[in-house]
């Protein structure tokens, strides 16, 4: 009797998960709409939203195309600076600034990608890490434009005009839902990319790039395109982060940020649609809770990293999907 | 125009030579770090992202041992052994379960490990840097004929040459080195011949990390010893390995010296451009010869 119940319960779970996987964009947006009321305070929800989008962009490259970049800090940072610079220096409106951040990050991704895709495997990770360090150094030294060591300050957007409504952007709830609007568009585009023939070629390259080449696909161009698209998503995340913090700390471009995003994608599950947001949520909530009782949270971060690599390489969401034996989205 | 010619006049041949020797001394650290990285990669196909952290641990272990013993030479012997022992444990406990599970997993794992090393060192020694003075007997400068050069940096060049020679002799001239070379080429056949390849991997990981630790203590008098000293060094070491060719020991040596000299010469013109120049060097190598100066084509399939 109890066995039948368990089986029924498992079946119900599987149906629920299958429904989420099938309607991934709607499910993710639905979850993100109620999300601010599930976390201790609203600002944390904004952080998680932004980092989730960043991890989503990273995941396009590693999870779907199999290219492990350790240089995504540069893309997030350039997105932030691109958005911040046009607001601080030229006073452009916020929505144009987001586009500028995205364009700037895509352009930098194009340069880094062009060099990095000439290498394969582990080399790729090393080259992206080194080039990101170079970008960091340039922004660190370019003080007249970026504010150098102090970061770029004064990205003050207190009210925004949306379809005739004046919205108080300092209120975290308003800020969250405006940003969610941007993230929703990004999610929809992301899902479209994955479902397109281009998305299928990406996964072919991840599984076997020589075979993809033998099938007549231009592997180098597809990789570069994936890198640029990934840069665009990370650029949006960076631009939102600049609007959220009203400043761009130069530390955002350090290697640790690249590591953080790898960690979030790993926590959630590489190559899953919903995973990056779960990873970002767990990472931020975990970090937030840890800082309350220890200053050595990096120790626990490193240990979690190792435990996941050794025992849960599928990540949280990836493991759930695996246990319930549903096809990956 | 006048400014440029004034600059040209200032750069005399002596200054140029002095700057090149400075570059070689700087490159010596790069050579040692890249050597360990390349050795481990060539053998185990693992990129040790904790290599910079091993370097940093070496420097701290050296600082601590120096306060205990007061003898720099004792440190030079004990630090590589100590750091190498940590490396042996790392390979045995953490890296070994990951063989055959994809090339990215050891990379992710060692990255996580570097966080732990940095944080443990912060807990033990604090957040601030520790100055490490040049050991007695190696202070002062030597007259090279074209200028005075710090004695310690000359010692660094000599020590690096000695380590490189010793490693070369070990790998090329001993029977153990023969097994290592065979294992790098075809681990399967080596195993068939009745040799326990996992022991070889263990030893190579220990040697590679030991050299990283040794370079940490050797570099300590040149810079302040901080928990973060390994982070930017890791990026530099990657540049050297990409330029030299992954898995090539000759490449690590040539590229290490080359990168050091390029940084040093660019800094002469503009200090800011010094650090950027090595990334430009890497970009050029990637465009012209993606496998690196001494790398084999398609070695990284």
- Taking all Cα atoms into account, the compactness measure Rg of chain A is 20 Å
Question: Within the largest sheet of chain A, what's the order of strands?
Answer: 1-4
Largest sheet of chain A: 2 strands, antiparallel
- What structural category do the secondary elements of chain A indicate? mainly alpha
β-strand percent of chain B reads: under 5%
Radius of gyration of chain B: 20 Å
What key attributes describe this structure?
heterodimer, A: 329 residues, mainly alpha, two-stranded antiparallel sheet, 75% helix, B: 301 residues, ABC transporter involved in vitamin B12 uptake, BtuC, 2 strands, globular
Short description:
The complex is a heterodimer of chains A (329) and B (301). Chain A is mainly α and 329 residues long.
Written overview of the protein:
The complex is a heterodimer of chains A (329) and B (301). Chain A has 15 helices and 4 strands. Chain A has 329 residues and is mostly helical. The model of chain A has no long low-confidence stretch (mean pLDDT 87). Chain B has one domain: Orthogonal Bundle (ABC transporter involved in vitamin B12 uptake, BtuC), CATH 1.10.3470. Chain B is 74% helix and 2% strand. Chain B has helices at residues 2-10, 13-44, 51-69, 72-95, 104-125, 151-173, 175-185, 187-192, 197-219, 229-244, 249-269, 271-288; strands at residues 141-143, 148-150. In chain B, a hairpin with a 4-residue loop joins strand 1 and strand 2 (148-150). In chain B, helix 2 packs antiparallel against helix 11, helix 4 packs across helix 9 (197-219) and helix 10 packs across helix 11 (249-269). Chain B is globular, with a radius of gyration of 20 Å.
Write the layout of secondary structure elements.
The complex is a heterodimer of chains A (329) and B (301).
Chain A: H1 2-22, H2 24-34, H3 42-64, H4 72-90, H5 94-116, H6 122-141, H7 143-146, E1 152-153, E2 159-162, E3 165-168, H8 172-195, H9 197-207, H10 209-214, H11 219-245, E4 247-248, H12 255-268, H13 275-293, H14 297-311, H15 315-323
Antiparallel strand pairs in A: 1-4, 2-3
Helix pairs in contact in A: 1-2, 2-8, 3-8, 3-11, 3-12, 3-13, 4-5, 4-6, 4-11, 5-6, 5-11, 8-11, 9-11, 12-13, 12-15
Chain B: H1 2-10, H2 13-44, H3 51-69, H4 72-95, H5 104-125, E1 141-143, E2 148-150, H6 151-173, H7 175-185, H8 187-192, H9 197-219, H10 229-244, H11 249-269, H12 271-288
Antiparallel strand pairs in B: 1-2
